[in-house]
Structure formats: structure tokens, C-alpha cells
């Protein structure tokens, strides 16, 4: 990595193999004398782009309103673009690759010498123990209270004779035995187009329902 400036190498176009050194500023264009004319590339504008290196060592490229534009890594730029090593720049029919960038000036992180070690913090003294108050003398215990005399037991209540239970009702007649229930067959026939429903109960009676006036009504009931 260079300390003085940035170095870019032309890898495609009329100036292929040429190196571009940027220490402060380099203008690229057809009417520029020196390496900025890129070997007479007819596809670049008169003032196509500007390469610059600032005081902190950052290298950037800016398009100067060229006709064909300036591209960094395949993307056309519309504002100054900071460059990194390995970036590819396309201007007209020329391709340039960033090879070296200046070292950025960083803060001095060297530790100072002959610095005395910090003094240890003072050790705090433990607080003095508080005086212990003497315990009070025990007072004589008072005699236990006298137990109350037992109360006389109340006489137990006499049990009243139990009332006789009423006699169970006598059934007047025996309950009838469960008779078998015959099965019921219901047939339903729905006629959507005629808006009617036929209900047949078993084989004897048919009930016809018709949909009139917004509700279902019984039309006829006939036996079969």
C-alpha cells in the first residue's frame, strides 16, 4: 500500500497497461493533457471525471456530467464515490482497476512511557462496635389464675315419641305393560322447479307443501 497516493491501472481500452497515479487530483477527459486523456479514448467526454485523494487518505471518483457516464463495479454513479482496492471503473471505452490506496492516518495508540502506576485506594477502617446495653433483670412470675368451678351439667332432654309414619298408598290397579311401537316411515320428495314438497307418511297419507307469498303453505292432504 502506497503512502503518497493511489495507483490505478488501465486494463482495457487504448491506454491498456498504463498506470494512473493520484496524489491530489486527476482530471480524466479528451481535452486533458497527460495520462488523464486515456490514450485518446473517443468515447469519453471533454471533462469526464475527477479522481481525488483527501487529507485522510480516502480516494474518490466523481462524474463531471459526462455523456456516457462513469461506472463503479458496474453501477453508474451520480455523486462522488469512495473507492476501495479492487474496484473496477468504466469510463467510455476504458476500464481501470484500483490497485493501491494511500494509508489512512490513524490515532497514535502507543502507550506512554514512565507512567507511574496508580496509587491503591485507601483502606477504610471498620466501624467501632456499638456498646451492648445490659439485659433487664427478670421480674417474678405472677401466680396462675384460679380455675373456675365446674358448672352443673344440664339435664339431658327427654326424647319425644316418634310420630307414626303414614301408611303406603295402595295401588288401585296394576300399571299396564309397555306395548311395542311400530316403526314410522316418512318419505320426502322436493320439487325445486315447482316449489313444492311432498311428505308421505307410511303408505297411507301424503301432505303437499307449496311455497307461496314468501312462505310454505299446506296445499292438499290426500290418502294413497
Explain this structure.
The strands form three sheets. Strands 2-1-10-9-6-7 form a six-stranded antiparallel sheet, with no helix packed on it. Strands 3-4-5-8 form a four-stranded antiparallel sheet, with no helix packed on it. A four-stranded antiparallel sheet has the order 11-12-13-14, with no helix packed on it. The two termini are 112 Å apart. With 224 residues, the protein is mostly beta strands. The protein is built from no helices and 14 strands. Helix content is 0%, strand content 32%. The protein has strands at residues 6-12, 19-22, 25-28, 49-53, 59-63, 70-72, 75-76, 81-82, 88-91, 94-100, 186-191, 196-201, 205-212, 215-223.
Number of strands: 14
Q: Helical percent range? A: under 10%
Give me the strand/helix succession: EEEEEEEEEEEEEE
Number of helices: 0
Strand order of the largest sheet: 2-1-10-9-6-7
Mean pLDDT across all residues, rounded? 76
Largest sheet: 6 strands, antiparallel
Intertermini distance: 112 Å
Low-confidence segments: 105-112
Structural class label: mainly beta
Radius of gyration: 58 Å
Shape, please?
flat
Strand content: 25-35%
Q: What order do the helices and strands come in, and which of them pair?
A:
Elements: E1 6-12, E2 19-22, E3 25-28, E4 49-53, E5 59-63, E6 70-72, E7 75-76, E8 81-82, E9 88-91, E10 94-100, E11 186-191, E12 196-201, E13 205-212, E14 215-223
Antiparallel strand pairs: 1-2, 1-10, 3-4, 4-5, 5-8, 6-7, 6-9, 9-10, 11-12, 12-13, 13-14
